[in-house]
Amino acid sequence: MGNKIPESNKSTFYELADLKVLDRDFAEKIADSAKTRNQLTHDYDKVQDRIMVDDMKKFAEMYKEYIKILIEKFVAKES
Question: How far apart are CA 47 and CA 64, in angstroms?
Answer without folding.
Answer: 24
